[in-house]
């Protein structure tokens, strides 16, 4: 899901949505969506240790395993494979 898609579903424009998100949650819609996708991916990795990281990346909306790994490292401070090992 994108911020534009979310704004369309809420029948508002993207700028109003962004302002409202920032005021209410202290983050942009993009950051909120990214956090939700990363949390879902982390849960999948923790629940199913043998799951392929590229499969998790694509299932949670990332264009590639490397893009997923980059965002994951920035957010959690560890590689996706480290989550699987714990």
Estimate the mean pLDDT confidence.
Answer: 90
Instruction: Provide the succession of SSEs.
Output: HHHHHH
Percent strand: under 5%
Q: Strand pairing plus helix content: what structural class?
A: mainly alpha
**Percentage of helical residues?**
over 70%
Q: Count the E strands.
A: 0
Global Rg: 15 Å
- The shape is elongated
Query: How widely separated are the two ends?
Result: 29 Å
| Total helical segments | 6
Low-confidence stretches: none
Taking the sheet with the most strands, its summary is: none
Q: Top keywords for this entry?
A:
single chain, 86 residues, mainly alpha, 6 helices
Please describe what this structure looks like:
- There is one protein chain.
- Helix content is 73%, strand content 0%.
- α1 crosses α2 (14-25) and α4 (53-59) crosses α5.
- It is built from 6 helices and no strands.
- The protein is an all-alpha fold.
Summarize the structure.
With 86 residues, the protein is mostly helical. The chain contains six helices and no strands.
Set out the fold topology.
Elements: H1 3-9, H2 14-25, H3 29-47, H4 53-59, H5 65-76, H6 80-85
């Amino acid at each position: 899901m994108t911020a534009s898609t979310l704004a369309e579903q809420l029948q508002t424009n993207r700028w109003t949505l962004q302002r409202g998100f920032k005021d209410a949650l202290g983050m942009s819609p993009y950051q909120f969506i990214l956090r939700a996708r990363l949390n879902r991916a982390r849960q999948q990795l923790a629940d199913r240790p043998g799951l392929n990281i590229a499969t998790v990346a694509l299932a949670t909306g990332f264009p590639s395993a490397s893009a997923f790994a980059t965002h994951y490292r920035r957010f959690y401070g560890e590689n996706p494979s480290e989550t699987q090992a714990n």
